[in-house]
Amino acid sequence: MTDAPASSGAVLRRFLRLALFIGLGACGGWLFQRIGSPLPWMIGPLVVTALLCLTGALPTQVPNRLRPFGQVVVASQVGLTFTSETLHVVLELGPVILGTAMMTLVCILLVTLVFSRWSGMTLAQGFLANVPTSPVEAAAMAVENRVDPVPVIFSQTLRLSAVVLVLPFGLFALEGWPAGRGMPHADVPIQPLNIVLLLACGFAAMHLFRWLRIPNPNFLGPLAATATLAVSGYGLPPYPAVILSAAQVVLGCWLGSTFRRELVARAGRLTLTCLVSILTLLAACSLGAAGIAQLAGMDWRLLVLGAAPGGVTEMALTAKFLGQNATIVTAFHLTRIFIFMPNIPWIVAVIARYERRRLRPESEDK
Q1: What would the pLDDT profile of 20-36 be if each residue is shown by its tens digit?
Q2: How many whole angstroms separate alpha carbon 71 and alpha carbon 317?
Q3: Do the Cβ atoms of 67 and 305 come closer than 8 Å?
Q4: Are the C-beta atoms of residues 83 and 293 closer than 8 Å to each other?
Q5: Where do runs of H (alpha helix) occur along the chain?
Q6: Model confidence pTM above 0.85
Q7: Can you tell me the distance from the alpha carbon of 43 to that of 253, in angstroms, rounded to the nearest whole number?
Q8: What are the domain boundaries of the chain?
Protein backbone atom coordinates (compact mmCIF):
# COMPACT_ATOMS: atom_id res chain seq x y z
CA MET A 1 0.00 0.00 0.00
CA THR A 2 2.95 2.35 0.56
CA ASP A 3 4.58 1.69 -2.83
CA ALA A 4 2.28 3.98 -4.81
CA PRO A 5 2.73 7.07 -2.59
CA ALA A 6 6.51 6.46 -2.44
CA SER A 7 6.62 6.12 -6.21
CA SER A 8 4.53 9.27 -6.65
CA GLY A 9 6.84 11.13 -4.30
CA ALA A 10 9.92 10.04 -6.25
CA VAL A 11 8.33 11.16 -9.50
CA LEU A 12 7.45 14.53 -7.96
CA ARG A 13 11.02 14.98 -6.67
CA ARG A 14 12.47 14.16 -10.10
CA PHE A 15 10.07 16.61 -11.73
CA LEU A 16 10.93 19.40 -9.28
CA ARG A 17 14.65 18.71 -9.70
CA LEU A 18 14.31 18.87 -13.49
CA ALA A 19 12.22 22.05 -13.27
CA LEU A 20 14.84 23.69 -11.04
CA PHE A 21 17.62 22.57 -13.39
CA ILE A 22 15.91 24.01 -16.48
CA GLY A 23 14.88 27.12 -14.54
CA LEU A 24 18.51 27.80 -13.58
CA GLY A 25 19.47 27.21 -17.20
CA ALA A 26 16.89 29.78 -18.30
CA CYS A 27 18.37 32.24 -15.79
CA GLY A 28 21.70 31.65 -17.49
CA GLY A 29 20.07 32.51 -20.81
CA TRP A 30 18.71 35.75 -19.38
CA LEU A 31 22.14 36.64 -17.99
CA PHE A 32 23.93 35.90 -21.26
CA GLN A 33 21.36 38.00 -23.12
CA ARG A 34 22.03 40.89 -20.76
CA ILE A 35 25.77 40.78 -21.48
CA GLY A 36 25.16 40.60 -25.25
CA SER A 37 26.32 37.02 -25.82
CA PRO A 38 25.67 35.32 -29.14
CA LEU A 39 22.94 32.68 -28.92
CA PRO A 40 22.29 33.62 -25.28
CA TRP A 41 19.30 31.33 -24.79
CA MET A 42 21.33 28.29 -25.84
CA ILE A 43 24.86 29.11 -24.66
CA GLY A 44 23.71 30.48 -21.29
CA PRO A 45 21.78 27.33 -20.30
CA LEU A 46 24.58 25.14 -21.67
CA VAL A 47 27.25 26.83 -19.54
CA VAL A 48 25.13 26.99 -16.37
CA THR A 49 23.84 23.41 -16.51
CA ALA A 50 27.25 21.98 -17.45
CA LEU A 51 28.70 23.71 -14.37
CA LEU A 52 25.89 22.34 -12.21
CA CYS A 53 26.70 18.82 -13.40
CA LEU A 54 30.50 19.08 -13.35
CA THR A 55 30.62 20.59 -9.86
CA GLY A 56 28.08 18.09 -8.52
CA ALA A 57 25.84 20.92 -7.34
CA LEU A 58 22.78 19.64 -9.22
CA PRO A 59 23.61 16.75 -11.56
CA THR A 60 20.46 16.10 -13.57
CA GLN A 61 19.71 14.21 -16.77
CA VAL A 62 17.34 16.04 -19.10
CA PRO A 63 15.21 13.30 -20.72
CA ASN A 64 15.90 12.70 -24.41
CA ARG A 65 12.17 12.98 -25.09
CA LEU A 66 12.33 16.73 -24.32
CA ARG A 67 14.96 17.43 -26.98
CA PRO A 68 12.55 17.00 -29.95
CA PHE A 69 10.59 20.04 -28.75
CA GLY A 70 13.63 22.26 -29.30
CA GLN A 71 14.50 20.63 -32.60
CA VAL A 72 10.95 20.79 -33.97
CA VAL A 73 10.54 24.46 -33.08
CA VAL A 74 13.87 25.49 -34.63
CA ALA A 75 13.42 23.32 -37.73
CA SER A 76 9.89 24.51 -38.46
CA GLN A 77 11.01 28.12 -37.98
CA VAL A 78 13.94 27.68 -40.41
CA GLY A 79 11.67 25.93 -42.91
CA LEU A 80 9.40 28.97 -43.07
CA THR A 81 12.28 30.98 -44.63
CA PHE A 82 12.51 28.54 -47.56
CA THR A 83 10.88 30.67 -50.26
CA SER A 84 10.94 29.93 -53.99
CA GLU A 85 13.73 32.50 -54.35
CA THR A 86 15.78 30.70 -51.70
CA LEU A 87 15.21 27.36 -53.46
CA HIS A 88 16.59 28.84 -56.67
CA VAL A 89 19.70 30.08 -54.84
CA VAL A 90 20.26 26.69 -53.19
CA LEU A 91 20.04 24.90 -56.56
CA GLU A 92 22.56 27.33 -58.02
CA LEU A 93 24.95 26.64 -55.15
CA GLY A 94 24.76 22.84 -55.60
CA PRO A 95 28.43 22.36 -56.62
CA VAL A 96 29.68 24.59 -53.78
CA ILE A 97 27.51 22.79 -51.20
CA LEU A 98 28.68 19.36 -52.41
CA GLY A 99 32.33 20.43 -52.50
CA THR A 100 32.12 21.83 -48.98
CA ALA A 101 30.65 18.55 -47.68
CA MET A 102 33.47 16.52 -49.23
CA MET A 103 36.08 18.94 -47.84
CA THR A 104 34.62 18.43 -44.36
CA LEU A 105 34.86 14.64 -44.75
CA VAL A 106 38.54 14.89 -45.71
CA CYS A 107 39.23 17.07 -42.65
CA ILE A 108 37.45 14.54 -40.39
CA LEU A 109 39.53 11.63 -41.74
CA LEU A 110 42.80 13.55 -41.31
CA VAL A 111 41.99 14.64 -37.75
CA THR A 112 40.95 11.07 -36.90
CA LEU A 113 44.27 9.68 -38.14
CA VAL A 114 46.28 12.25 -36.17
CA PHE A 115 44.44 12.24 -32.84
CA SER A 116 42.83 8.82 -32.35
CA ARG A 117 45.95 7.06 -31.07
CA TRP A 118 46.91 9.96 -28.82
CA SER A 119 43.50 9.82 -27.16
CA GLY A 120 43.68 6.06 -26.62
CA MET A 121 40.72 5.48 -28.96
CA THR A 122 40.68 3.13 -31.92
CA LEU A 123 40.38 4.56 -35.42
CA ALA A 124 36.72 3.49 -35.53
CA GLN A 125 36.04 5.28 -32.24
CA GLY A 126 37.98 8.33 -33.42
CA PHE A 127 35.98 8.56 -36.64
CA LEU A 128 32.65 8.20 -34.83
CA ALA A 129 33.80 10.78 -32.26
CA ASN A 130 34.51 13.41 -34.93
CA VAL A 131 31.89 12.85 -37.62
CA PRO A 132 29.02 15.37 -37.39
CA THR A 133 26.06 13.36 -36.13
CA SER A 134 24.13 13.08 -32.89
CA PRO A 135 25.70 11.37 -29.84
CA VAL A 136 22.84 8.85 -29.81
CA GLU A 137 23.29 7.87 -33.48
CA ALA A 138 27.09 7.67 -33.11
CA ALA A 139 26.75 5.44 -30.04
CA ALA A 140 24.32 3.13 -31.85
CA MET A 141 26.76 2.69 -34.73
CA ALA A 142 29.57 2.02 -32.26
CA VAL A 143 27.58 -0.76 -30.60
CA GLU A 144 26.67 -2.29 -33.97
CA ASN A 145 30.37 -2.50 -34.85
CA ARG A 146 31.44 -3.87 -31.43
CA VAL A 147 33.13 -0.59 -30.49
CA ASP A 148 32.99 0.84 -26.95
CA PRO A 149 30.40 3.67 -27.19
CA VAL A 150 31.31 5.58 -23.99
CA PRO A 151 34.28 7.58 -25.41
CA VAL A 152 32.24 8.21 -28.56
CA ILE A 153 29.30 9.69 -26.61
CA PHE A 154 31.65 11.82 -24.51
CA SER A 155 33.54 13.12 -27.55
CA GLN A 156 30.37 13.82 -29.53
CA THR A 157 28.93 15.83 -26.64
CA LEU A 158 32.15 17.82 -26.35
CA ARG A 159 32.11 18.43 -30.11
CA LEU A 160 28.56 19.78 -30.16
CA SER A 161 29.16 21.96 -27.11
CA ALA A 162 32.55 23.27 -28.27
CA VAL A 163 31.28 24.26 -31.72
CA VAL A 164 28.25 26.03 -30.22
CA LEU A 165 30.51 27.92 -27.81
CA VAL A 166 33.54 28.65 -30.02
CA LEU A 167 32.09 29.47 -33.44
CA PRO A 168 29.72 32.35 -32.56
CA PHE A 169 32.28 33.98 -30.27
CA GLY A 170 34.99 33.48 -32.89
CA LEU A 171 32.92 35.21 -35.56
CA PHE A 172 32.08 37.99 -33.12
CA ALA A 173 35.77 38.45 -32.34
CA LEU A 174 36.59 38.78 -36.05
CA GLU A 175 33.70 41.10 -36.87
CA GLY A 176 33.59 43.09 -33.66
CA TRP A 177 30.95 42.73 -30.95
CA PRO A 178 27.76 44.01 -32.57
CA ALA A 179 25.08 46.00 -30.82
CA GLY A 180 21.45 45.09 -31.12
CA ARG A 181 21.94 41.78 -32.88
CA GLY A 182 19.48 39.07 -31.99
CA MET A 183 16.97 36.56 -33.17
CA PRO A 184 14.38 37.71 -35.71
CA HIS A 185 10.63 37.76 -35.09
CA ALA A 186 11.05 39.34 -31.66
CA ASP A 187 7.91 41.40 -32.34
CA VAL A 188 5.69 38.54 -33.54
CA PRO A 189 2.49 38.60 -31.45
CA ILE A 190 1.52 35.54 -29.44
CA GLN A 191 -1.35 33.88 -31.30
CA PRO A 192 -2.12 30.49 -29.69
CA LEU A 193 -3.86 29.03 -32.75
CA ASN A 194 -0.90 29.78 -35.05
CA ILE A 195 1.54 28.33 -32.49
CA VAL A 196 -0.52 25.13 -32.14
CA LEU A 197 -0.84 24.73 -35.93
CA LEU A 198 2.89 25.18 -36.48
CA LEU A 199 3.76 22.77 -33.66
CA ALA A 200 1.23 20.21 -34.92
CA CYS A 201 2.66 20.44 -38.42
CA GLY A 202 6.20 20.01 -37.11
CA PHE A 203 5.49 17.04 -34.82
CA ALA A 204 3.35 15.27 -37.42
CA ALA A 205 6.17 15.54 -39.95
CA MET A 206 8.67 14.36 -37.33
CA HIS A 207 6.67 11.18 -36.68
CA LEU A 208 6.22 10.59 -40.42
CA PHE A 209 9.97 10.81 -41.03
CA ARG A 210 10.59 8.46 -38.09
CA TRP A 211 8.15 5.97 -39.60
CA LEU A 212 9.94 6.28 -42.96
CA ARG A 213 13.30 5.77 -41.15
CA ILE A 214 14.75 8.99 -42.57
CA PRO A 215 17.90 10.18 -40.73
CA ASN A 216 17.54 13.02 -38.21
CA PRO A 217 13.70 13.00 -38.34
CA ASN A 218 13.34 15.49 -35.46
CA PHE A 219 14.86 18.19 -37.64
CA LEU A 220 14.36 17.07 -41.24
CA GLY A 221 10.64 16.29 -40.87
CA PRO A 222 9.50 19.70 -39.57
CA LEU A 223 11.94 21.46 -41.90
CA ALA A 224 10.57 19.67 -44.97
CA ALA A 225 6.94 20.25 -43.96
CA THR A 226 7.14 23.98 -43.29
CA ALA A 227 9.51 24.56 -46.24
CA THR A 228 6.97 22.91 -48.54
CA LEU A 229 4.24 25.16 -47.18
CA ALA A 230 6.43 28.25 -47.57
CA VAL A 231 7.48 27.46 -51.15
CA SER A 232 3.85 26.82 -52.13
CA GLY A 233 2.78 30.15 -50.64
CA TYR A 234 0.91 28.71 -47.65
CA GLY A 235 3.51 29.39 -44.98
CA LEU A 236 2.29 29.82 -41.40
CA PRO A 237 3.28 32.80 -39.22
CA PRO A 238 6.59 32.26 -37.37
CA TYR A 239 6.90 31.54 -33.66
CA PRO A 240 7.09 34.51 -31.28
CA ALA A 241 10.46 35.09 -29.59
CA VAL A 242 9.40 33.49 -26.30
CA ILE A 243 8.72 30.11 -27.99
CA LEU A 244 12.00 30.16 -29.91
CA SER A 245 13.88 31.11 -26.74
CA ALA A 246 12.23 28.26 -24.81
CA ALA A 247 13.30 25.82 -27.50
CA GLN A 248 16.89 27.01 -27.22
CA VAL A 249 16.79 26.68 -23.41
CA VAL A 250 15.71 23.03 -23.78
CA LEU A 251 18.51 22.31 -26.26
CA GLY A 252 21.13 24.08 -24.12
CA CYS A 253 20.04 22.29 -20.93
CA TRP A 254 20.05 18.93 -22.70
CA LEU A 255 23.63 19.47 -23.87
CA GLY A 256 24.74 20.68 -20.44
CA SER A 257 23.12 17.73 -18.67
CA THR A 258 25.25 15.23 -20.59
CA PHE A 259 28.41 16.34 -18.77
CA ARG A 260 29.34 14.13 -15.82
CA ARG A 261 31.89 14.97 -13.16
CA GLU A 262 33.11 11.40 -12.70
CA LEU A 263 33.63 10.86 -16.45
CA VAL A 264 35.63 14.05 -16.91
CA ALA A 265 37.73 13.33 -13.82
CA ARG A 266 38.41 9.77 -14.99
CA ALA A 267 39.16 10.70 -18.59
CA GLY A 268 41.58 13.60 -18.30
CA ARG A 269 43.69 12.53 -21.27
CA LEU A 270 40.62 11.80 -23.36
CA THR A 271 39.08 15.18 -22.49
CA LEU A 272 42.21 17.11 -23.41
CA THR A 273 42.74 15.19 -26.65
CA CYS A 274 39.10 15.51 -27.68
CA LEU A 275 39.12 19.26 -27.11
CA VAL A 276 42.32 19.69 -29.13
CA SER A 277 41.03 17.49 -31.96
CA ILE A 278 37.66 19.29 -32.03
CA LEU A 279 39.31 22.71 -32.21
CA THR A 280 41.70 21.43 -34.89
CA LEU A 281 38.78 20.05 -36.90
CA LEU A 282 36.84 23.31 -36.52
CA ALA A 283 39.88 25.33 -37.63
CA ALA A 284 40.55 23.04 -40.61
CA CYS A 285 36.92 23.13 -41.77
CA SER A 286 36.79 26.92 -41.34
CA LEU A 287 39.97 27.47 -43.34
CA GLY A 288 38.79 25.10 -46.07
CA ALA A 289 35.40 26.85 -46.18
CA ALA A 290 37.06 30.27 -46.40
CA GLY A 291 39.13 29.01 -49.33
CA ILE A 292 36.06 27.69 -51.14
CA ALA A 293 34.26 30.99 -50.46
CA GLN A 294 37.17 32.88 -52.02
CA LEU A 295 37.03 30.69 -55.15
CA ALA A 296 33.23 30.91 -55.39
CA GLY A 297 33.03 34.64 -54.61
CA MET A 298 30.74 34.10 -51.63
CA ASP A 299 30.54 35.43 -48.08
CA TRP A 300 33.11 33.44 -46.07
CA ARG A 301 30.93 33.60 -42.94
CA LEU A 302 28.14 31.75 -44.73
CA LEU A 303 30.46 28.93 -45.80
CA VAL A 304 32.18 28.70 -42.41
CA LEU A 305 28.77 28.15 -40.81
CA GLY A 306 27.86 25.69 -43.57
CA ALA A 307 31.06 23.67 -43.10
CA ALA A 308 31.16 23.75 -39.28
CA PRO A 309 31.22 20.27 -37.70
CA GLY A 310 28.24 21.07 -35.49
CA GLY A 311 24.63 19.96 -35.41
CA VAL A 312 22.24 21.31 -38.03
CA THR A 313 19.91 22.65 -35.33
CA GLU A 314 22.65 24.59 -33.56
CA MET A 315 24.20 25.95 -36.77
CA ALA A 316 20.81 27.07 -38.11
CA LEU A 317 20.26 29.01 -34.89
CA THR A 318 23.76 30.50 -35.09
CA ALA A 319 23.15 31.61 -38.67
CA LYS A 320 19.88 33.30 -37.76
CA PHE A 321 21.50 35.06 -34.83
CA LEU A 322 24.48 36.27 -36.89
CA GLY A 323 22.25 37.61 -39.66
CA GLN A 324 23.25 34.96 -42.23
CA ASN A 325 20.82 33.05 -44.44
CA ALA A 326 19.82 30.16 -42.16
CA THR A 327 18.13 28.29 -45.00
CA ILE A 328 21.31 28.16 -47.10
CA VAL A 329 23.38 27.16 -44.05
CA THR A 330 20.83 24.43 -43.37
CA ALA A 331 21.13 23.29 -47.02
CA PHE A 332 24.89 22.82 -46.51
CA HIS A 333 24.30 20.70 -43.42
CA LEU A 334 21.43 18.70 -44.91
CA THR A 335 23.53 17.84 -47.96
CA ARG A 336 26.28 16.66 -45.64
CA ILE A 337 23.78 14.62 -43.62
CA PHE A 338 22.42 12.86 -46.70
CA ILE A 339 25.97 12.15 -47.91
CA PHE A 340 27.35 11.05 -44.55
CA MET A 341 24.48 9.19 -42.87
CA PRO A 342 24.10 6.34 -45.41
CA ASN A 343 27.90 5.93 -45.63
CA ILE A 344 29.05 6.23 -42.00
CA PRO A 345 28.05 2.64 -41.07
CA TRP A 346 30.05 0.96 -43.84
CA ILE A 347 33.05 3.28 -43.33
CA VAL A 348 33.11 2.41 -39.62
CA ALA A 349 32.66 -1.29 -40.41
CA VAL A 350 35.62 -1.22 -42.82
CA ILE A 351 37.82 0.63 -40.30
CA ALA A 352 36.83 -1.74 -37.48
CA ARG A 353 37.53 -4.86 -39.59
CA TYR A 354 40.89 -3.42 -40.65
CA GLU A 355 41.88 -2.79 -37.04
CA ARG A 356 40.76 -6.25 -35.90
CA ARG A 357 42.77 -7.91 -38.68
CA ARG A 358 45.81 -5.79 -37.88
CA LEU A 359 45.67 -6.62 -34.17
CA ARG A 360 45.06 -10.34 -34.66
CA PRO A 361 48.57 -11.24 -35.90
CA GLU A 362 50.11 -9.24 -33.03
CA SER A 363 48.05 -11.20 -30.48
CA GLU A 364 48.95 -14.49 -32.18
CA ASP A 365 52.68 -13.63 -32.04
CA LYS A 366 52.40 -13.16 -28.31
Answers
A1: 999 999 999 999 888 87
A2: 10
A3: no
A4: no
A5: 3-34, 40-54, 67-79, 84-92, 94-119, 123-130, 135-144, 150-175, 192-211, 217-231, 241-257, 261-266, 268-296, 300-307, 312-321, 326-340, 344-365
A6: no
A7: 9
A8: 66-365
